[in-house]
Amino acid sequence: MEYFYGENFPPDIREFCRILGTPCEENWKGVSQLPDYKPSFPQWKDNKLRQSVKNLDENGFDLLQKMLIYDPAYRISSKAIINHPYFDDLNKNVLPAAIIKSVD
Questions:
Q1: pLDDT digits (tens, 9 = 90+) for 21-35
Q2: Taking phi first (over 0 means left), then psi (-120 to 50 degrees means alpha), and beta for anything else, what does residue 72 get?
Q3: What's the number of CA atoms in the CB half-sphere (13 Å) around residue 92?
Q4: Backbone torsions φ then ψ of 30, nearest 5 degrees
Q5: Could you report the per-residue pLDDT of 58-88, keeping only the tens digit for each?
């Protein structure tokens, strides 16, 4: 995915927030108490993820959306990721046992 390059920290965070909306207490309880939280940071409210990844099918978009939830308490787990319908076509029998065991 070419949306979040990781080259320049502040511009990347702004781009991430432009697409997903800026983290706030509504979507991440306690975010305003984090040490680097800046209330002066630009506030984008709308989630524009769907418009940004038009080439993903519904299962792919659903998985991506669940992986990009700000609040880690609500973000999808690795076990749920491997069992997500997006990977239904993947033959899990050929995956190394260590991978499967590590997400159980």
A1: 999 999 999 999 999
A2: alpha
A3: 14
A4: 95, -5
A5: 999 999 999 999 999 999 999 899 899 999 8
Contact predicate 22/41, CB 8 Å: yes
User: Distance between CA 80 and CA 22 in Å, rounded?
Assistant: 25
Domain ranges of the chain: 1-55, 62-104
Give the pLDDT band (50/70/90) at residue 1. Answer: very low
DSSP string computed for 13-81: HHHHHHHH----TTTSTTGGGSTT--TTS----S--HHHH-TTS-HHHHHHHHHHT-SSTTTSPPHHHH
Measured distance CA(77)–CA(31) in Å, rounded: 20
What is this structure's pTM? 0.76
- Residue 94: CB atoms within 10 A of its CB come to 6
